[in-house]
Fold:
Amino acid sequence: MPMSLHQRALTLDATDPLAPLRAEFLFPRAPDGSDALYFAGNSLGLQPRRAREYVLAELDDWARLGVEGHVHGRHPWLPYHELVTEPMAHLVGALPSEVVVMNTLTVNLHLLLVSFYRPTRERYRIVIEGGAFPSDRYAVASQARLHGFDPHDAIVTLEPRPGEDLLRTEDIVSSLERLGSSVAVVLLGQVSYLTGQAFDVPAIGAAARSIGARFGLDLAHGAGNLRLSLHDDDVDFACWCSYKYLNSGPGSLGGAFVHARHLGDPSMPRLEGWWGHDKATRFQMPRTFVPIPTAEAWQLSNPPILPLAALRASLELFDRAGPLALRQKSVALTALLEEVLAPHAARAQVLTPRERDARGCQLSMRVTSGARAVVERLGARGVIADAREPDVVRLAPVPLYTRFADLTALGDVLSHVL
Structure:
């Protein structure tokens, strides 16, 4: 007899090399006191157990050393952000010199657009997907106005074909070819926060370069989710947050990427601050700014140590897992989730692409009874999911801490909820 879905899930859990990592995270409680089934890591990742330890260690050094903690702490604060540079670069497929952890996502997006959106009367348009996260829309519209352009003309949105929910690569490429030399920047959310669609970065990046445009990515839902290759894919710039799949805590720090070919370019405009100045002479307080020859040149101020400590705890777990094993488990989890959702297709239509290379671990489904109501009913039964009004429920089986059996348990709950 063929195994049931639940038996398959138990077998997969028994042979999962990443299973021990689940114990490294703290889970919210369900109404019955058990661990909740947590599928909202695409909105806020769970707390790594060591995050508290690492943050408290810095608080202790602050109490013990005061200002001397900058130099004499167990992990001195002056270079503390460098502790996360290499593991973060590894996660996004970049050289360490191309990556810096600083600020928050939209702050970093604005700083990067100052450098990469240099419009002229002829080349001034910014292309984004129609379903872009609102903060990206607000940011690019304000950048256009800052340069004296009307956002209604300067911002071009990529829309799916009538009756479809997803963007086709060939339609994106043809749109860029049609817009041609009027495009200054192409900015995509990788993956789409709403549908979970992952875009063909090499193909779209090549199309952007062919018309002379800069190509950037918002990786809020990609960093820690997809296997990324920012350097090899020749992306010009990218930014991301760290509180979703990277589990660094609510509102925590973001990351920024600038391709190596732009580093050290004296003609590259940027907003400048003390922490982007040459480290060797920073404390000589020179009057003239000398940029660090890495992505750190985009830093403005010294970074907050406590959020960095929490992020460090999470990135250590990514290093333990390895990107290949994480991606393999992500693919398997999401495939099983598809099977779990299949019997409910009449009431919950999956929007996310079926092709493994066109998605991360998130599946978005359009529900017939209202997203918020469905999420509340799930919560009452110990399942934490995420709603996007009016009718999209997002489920993300994060491979660092999700069991395969969690998905079959979700299926049982959905039978009652839907």
About this structure: The radius of gyration is 22 Å.
